[in-house]
Amino acid sequence: MTNSPDTQAIVVTAIHGLGAVGKSTLATALAYDEEVQSRFADGILWVTLGQEPNILPMLSVWVQALGDYNFKPTSVEATANHLRTLLFDKAVLLVVDDAWSPDHAQIFNLGGPRCQVLVTTREKAIADVLDAEIYNLDVMTLSQSMQLLSQRLGREIRGEEAKQAEALVKELGYLPLALELAAAQVADGMSWGELLVDIQGEIARLKTLDILGPEDVVDEASLKKLSLTASLNLSIKQLKHKRREDFIWLGILPDDVNITPGMAAVLWGMNDERDARDKLKDLRRKALLLDGVALADGKPTYRLHDLFHDLARNLLTAPLHPTEEGDLPGLGIRLAKAHKIFLKKYRKLTDNHLWHTLPNDGYIHQHLVWHLEKAGKIEEIHGLLAEESQSGANGWYETCERLGQMGIFITDVARAWELAEVDWDEDRLPQVIGWQCRYALITASINSLAGNLPVNLLVALVKHDFWSPEQGLVYALQKPNQGDKISSLAQLVGYLPANLKKLALSEALATAQQIQAEKDRAKVLGALGEKFPELLLPKALTAAQHIQDEEYRAQVLSALADQLPELLPEALAAAQHIQDMYYRAEVISALADQLPELLPEALALARQIQPEKNRAEVISALANKLTPELLPEALAAAKQIWDMHYRAQVISALAEKLTPELLPEVLATALQIHTYGVKVLSAFAKKLTL
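^ that's the sequence the OP posted. Answer follows.
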């Protein structure tokens, strides 16, 4: 990543290279690099475009990732402009993966002077349009290729086997994806020599088909693509018939989508999701699938590389009996019909054929309208958005709200509106105008009751399962009042799964940091202290350090003390920067539970506190933590307090810890306190009877 000489310009870097050369892998490595993450302190936003991206929901996800849950994305232009505003003063890395169109990539060319855009693409023209600095990613070296094969096989490759493997590496053009496919076949029992012969034969066959055109057949990029296609074809041919059909059916999905086990079970007609999960794992083991983004419950998902997706989609419509020798047999199904078959399977899962009653599998709600459109069922899209729930409300709205994904509903309304504008004739004009009016009204009134919903009611709705945790969290995040938002999030935490709990507390911390009055900010941070997970504690500690008033800073540091075992040096340094003896002693006393070696320092600080009332409070708070070696010093400190009330308070607090050797001295001191001596003797009664 480079710096911009012009602080007002967004630096754009494009990783350019062949398909399957590892562009996305490199971008991922950069995103996880600690130095990169440190530089872009406000986060990293990632989007994978593909050939047919659904731009609006992608932009909407970025808006929510930046903490704005109130904005309603009614158009690409409005949402992009809103993102520019949100990013203006932030340091964010924007990763635009797998860009195919300059227009699509340009939409995500956003941000302020501290942002940078990283694009991965096969098209150099995209880099030119964005005026990007180009990093040309070449294929791997022979050494890197052999290392990849060894890692994939889980063993070293030596001797004669290494020579055969090296020959195969060269034939496959050093492409990582092709090498992974080859390693999977070797792991399944095929020899390097046999695989090399098969690859060479498949490449020769593909060349004879002239699929690239005679002028391109010697182009290096085209030859490498032939190598990858040959490797993929052979991997598909090795699959058993049913498993091959399963792979081909994945071609019905959108580009770059996460493949969930629940969706795969429906697609493949399986009753048990676990069987679908096993099949997906097997396809991943064979390198035919890539890892996707895990679901909210932690379950893994998978995705198809776009080259594999293209093959699966082509085989879906290819004839059952190929015309060319060696071609893979397809399923011979038109795409529209394939989508109808898929939707029919999902329809069986509904109640009374109502789409909004579909169970959540992490896929179908996001892509139902897309599949309906591909199936040519435009009327059903309008029907979906008109379905009523049992309560008489809009069924699809209620479902999306329950899932905490209102962006789905808004995007679907926008798409239905677009379809209504292009899909009409004179005979249907009144109906089309009715749809457009309905969608206009929905869009205008999309701001819901979130701002006026009482905190206690919101929490009760989640607690008693009237609302899903996701739904409750979305409403809490939309609270316009900072105090209400923090209160909602803090109270909801006990009813949220782990992943949502982290998000809720992260948002609560961010909101607390925006509170201007330090007294109120400290009160909120202190109340949240015991709830923060380990990953948020560094940010919480930083928030405490930024409080200027030492009293309020001490309150927060003391509240965080028990949560900071990994950050004790930083917490101690923060305490030692407090000038006021009383507040510094208060924090160090709180930290002493984690750092017993701090006790002498805490006691010494306590003895220097001038107001005797405050000195007595701190020493009393330290009493139960003191080691036997420190008790004489603590007793001496108590005797130095002139006010008899406060002296009695400290000696009483020390009662349980004092050793028999110190009792005569304590009794003598108690008798000198007069009025408060009875209180001290009462505290020592148990020890005196032993």
